[in-house]
Design brief:
13 helices, globular, about 270 residues, mainly alpha
């Protein structure tokens, strides 16, 4: 009598089944359910009179205001203006930060020269620089883009340099022993090796840039999400203020998907579970 079918059935029974509420599925469900539960509690508290709706309007009223702003096109135009400034500011601040950060990681003399400047200027509140940017660049787009560029520059520079410094020296030595020139070392060893830290710096820089552009638009702009929030405050439109804050929060959530992109670009990096 053959025992193969019994062995197969036993193995199938022992093999663990994938559960719906296990691992990544559980985390996704929790991440979606938690803000929905918060909105539900907020709505119930507002309807029950437990909170003052003059300052904390019910989510249903905020959603109604959002639909009206979408319908008249003002939300789209202001969001697009903010995204454009964030994009150009990221390019203006990010490219120099990336190149300089990798160069600092490779060159000890350059690191000794630049480190004191970074240490001295990084703690300065970035929002405090905006009045100076208004004097230098005026109230046009240049001052807003410069504000984002400053916010993106420091996290990306610091993380790029750190990423290069954490590369095992043997890889750099092998490249030099095989006659690699400075550009080849930069492009084929240092830059790929620092990508995990570069992605972390980009995420931090975009988040800081988003905060700074909202502040800049409140002070010196006639468009953008920051302007929309400030204008709503002047008109005492609390629901519109919340709409602006929710859109900024949503953009921040979109920035948080960079780790997912990182897993595609850097499959060799081990991520914590």
């Amino acid at each position: 009598m053959s025992i193969a079918p019994n062995v197969t059935q036993t193995a199938a029974a022992v093999r663990p089944k994938k559960r719906l509420f296990a691992g990544d599925n559980r985390d996704r469900i929790i991440s979606i359910a938690s803000p929905l539960m918060l909105l539900l509690v907020w709505q119930i508290a507002a309807q029950a009179g437990l909170i003052d709706q003059r300052f904390f309007p019910a989510p249903s009223k905020v959603f109604s205001t959002l639909l009206s702003l979408v319908a008249d096109g003002s939300l789209w135009s202001n969001t697009w203006a903010t995204l454009q400034r964030l994009f150009w500011g990221t390019l203006v601040g990010g490219i120099p930060a990336l190149l300089l950060g990798v160069a600092i990681g490779l060159s000890r003399p350059l690191r000794a020269m630049i480190d004191p400047l970074i240490s001295a200027t990084y703690p300065v509140p970035k929002s405090a620089i905006f009045p100076l940017l208004l004097l230098i660049c005026g109230r046009g787009e240049a001052s807003k883009i410069a504000m984002v560029a400053i916010g993106v520059f420091y996290p990306l520079l610091i993380n790029s340099a750190t990423g290069v410094l954490e590369i095992n020296k043997i890889y750099l030595d092998v490249g030099r022993n095989y006659g690699a020139n400075r550009w080849q070392v930069f492009s084929t060893i240092a830059l790929p090796g620092a990508v995990p830290h570069i992605m972390s710096g980009l995420k931090l820089g975009l988040g800081l840039g988003l905060m700074l552009i909202a502040i800049a638009e409140m002070i010196g702009s006639k468009s953008g999400l920051g302007y929309m929030i400030w204008n709503a405050w002047e008109l005492l439109s609390v629901e519109q203020i919340y709409v602006g804050l929710l859109v900024v929060a949503f953009l921040g959530y979109v920035i948080s998907v960079i780790p997912e992109l990182e897993r595609k670009l850097v499959p060799w990096k081990k991520t914590a579970r």
